[in-house]
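Side project, low priority. Logging it here so it doesn't get lost.
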Amino acid sequence: MKSNAGQSKTLASRPGQPSPLSPQDAWETLPLAEVEQALGSSADGLSQAEAQKRLAQYGPNEIREKQVNPFLKFLSYFWGPIPWMIEAAVILSALARHWPDFGIILALLLANAAIGFWEEREAGNAIAALKAKLAIKARVKREGKWITPAARELVPGDIIRLHLGDIVPADARLLAGDPVEVDQSALTGESLPAARKSGDAVFSGSIIRQGEINALVYATGVHTYFGKTAQLVQEAHTVSHFQRAVLKIGNYLIMLAVLLVTVIIGVAIYRGDAVLTTLQFALVLTVAAIPVAMPTVLSVTMAVGARLLAKKQVIVSRLVAIEELAGVDVLCADKTGTLTQNKLTLGEPFVVGKISAEQVIFNAALASSLENNDAIDLAIFGALKDNQALNGYQLTHFQPFDPVHKRTEATVQGPDGKIFKVTKGAPQVIAALSANIRRTQAALDKAVNEFAARGFRSLAVARAEGDGPWKLLGVLPMFDPPREDAKATIASARAMGVKIEMLTGDALAIAKETAKKLDMGVAILDAGNLDDAKRRETAAISDLIEQADGFAQVFPEHKFHIIDVLQKRGHIVGMTGDGVNDAPALKQADCGIAVAGATDAARAAAAIVLLAPGLSVIIDAIKESRKIFQRMNSYAIYRIAETLRVLFFMTLSILIFNFYPLTAVMIVMLALLNDGAILSIAYDNVRYKNQPEAWNMRMVLGIATVLGLIGVVSAFGLFYLGERVFHLDRAHIQTLMYLKLSVAGHLTIFLTRARGPFWSIRPAAALWAAVLGTQAIATLIAVYGLFMTPLGWAWAGFVWAYALAWFLVNDLVKRLAYRILDPVKTAAGMASAAKPPEAKPDGEIKPILGAGNGSQADAELKAVAEPAPQTIERVHRLYEELGREDVRAVQEWEQSKRNRSRDGR
């Protein structure tokens, strides 16, 4: 390893030209001035021409995924257990000189590889396009101006701006400014943020947790310290609940196929049949029974769903999140920007002494920054009567807002040359700083409480002259009106069986006022009472969390705990967030959702990213995910039913009648046509349920088994007619059975896609075209005898009529089976199940789950079904029993009782 002096000499030999291939620690430890010189950096940043030159020289700032040669990728589809079985059948066909079988089976092998390769390529392209929309932006200074290009366009020598919530886009050295807190846990495993000051290095992929500062980029892309471990968009390699269930189905079908084929081989050997022919038939039957198309159908359906959601401004970064979203029954929604417009307006300020309202707003503006595009700062600047009032004031230092200190602070030099400081933030924080708080505390508390009762957020402002003490100037009331569509959207969510719990950092009174306007329920609790909930994990606290309509004064640790409790109670929880401190909760939730305008850290932690503001887009996403679930549910039932039908019919025919009702070629063509058409189910019309989706294996296996067994009965019925009634020879019977299994098998998809009558949901044009097209081909093959005995149009018409008649019978039996196997979800049952748990108008909390352990606390919780005054009194007493006897909580409950008594409730 070269010394720093040696590195300095190497860099100096190439003035103005960065050398990212130099040993990494040189850039980290060299004096900052030498790094700036070596990178040819200036206070105005690089020129656009120089940036383009360096981009061409060093490449984009991204970790390129290893590109697989398309031809090698295509060949990979011929390697694996299922391809090996097909290839063995091809070899056995050649050894037995069954050339028609050889040609058809080889065609199946090539077709499966081609379809899988194409569909995976299309799905990969769709995912790449979605990831491109999630690509982070960087604030870069070029030619003296701040711009926001994509982070992939960064080059060594760029000056970038980092602030709270940003993911560091490249390796960089911090320039002059206050220290920042950097979270490197994803890269180094450090559990706590590390302090970094001017001159220190920060690495690509770490997160700014506190502070704001400029930095000089010295390494990008593959040249960064952590290289490929610092990818900004994570690929999803996890398996969701639904995928696990479908894979279990696949394993069940494979085991069943292997078992029955083993029986067939054993009987054939006992009877003295030709070994090669028996093995070839057994292999082909196994291939036909195994759900070869299942992985492809899964990926295509997910990719199609992701594209549909993208059109609705919902970007899915992990496809499995679509399946999880279908089962969400509790959505923990952030208030600001999701339920409200995040467009703050100022009311009439509270002022201290002879301070004017204009002075309070003016000083608040001095403690604000336009660069960060913050909603609060924008509202304050918009309230200034004179846009030129700030001219002549020079900002010498600015400390941005962070969730720990809950305030901003600015050091300002006035036109007269005097230095003073201004700060704005949470009233309790500013009050603690102020020297004049003693004589104004009562008036301040009264003003803040009155603002909160009207739904206003309070922002206190203070000023300090020189090194003098802070003096409270006043409080700005800020109103964030509810979104126009929020009330209707919440009602729609309830109708869909999704309970929305509001989580907000605002005061309890503000949260209640917002919930009242949105008809969300009145059971809003103070999250401050959950501070030690992890230490006292009781059923009573869990019940309160589960039954609440929302929480006020929420901190990030509260969000994580609330989600954890709900998950332990068996709920599938969705969580919306936008800040860097929301990242742990977004990861903990079954479906983390980063709302519009979220920080890079929140977007990286979430499974779904919203590009449009508001809650309605989330509801649209839930609807679409439930449709996708229904398509997959239909496919699962169809696949099981068809496998049972073919396997049992073939096995029983061989064992009982010593007759192969289908040749190997027929089985191959049957599988080929079925797998080709079933992909269209990804585009089918479906009707989602007004309740969260849950994988009901008992119902799926039950319905599939009923349909499969009826198919076996109908197949033997046609076999009986062909042999005993119409006295057809075995060759014609084989063609007859091939056409029957093909037509009846594809008609099954029209049964499984609708819970009610088959005509209750109109199939999509793509499904119609796929099924009718493949069955037209199957009919022509049977009529004209391609690789089989010609059947003729008359017999083909008879098979179609027979299959359609049984189709109508199957539809009646299917509906009866649903009534028996899934009686809760009748029309009345679905309406009941769709009704979400909610707070009644009189304020009583409707219990969701009984505690069931007989404790006194549980007995108190069960009493919430009583009238509202008793409810408040009992919950109040429960709080006291749990050690939540702080004065503020008592006052709020007592005030709530008085308000309800006054309202006559």
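Brief comment: The chain is about 50% helix and 10% strand.
Revisit when time allows.
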